[in-house]
Amino acid sequence: MGAMDWIAMVLLIVGGINWGLVGLFDVDLVAMLFGEGSALGRVVYVLVGLSALYSIYTSSKMSRAR
Question: Which superkingdom heads the taxonomic lineage of this protein's source (predicted)?
Answer without folding.
Answer: Bacteria
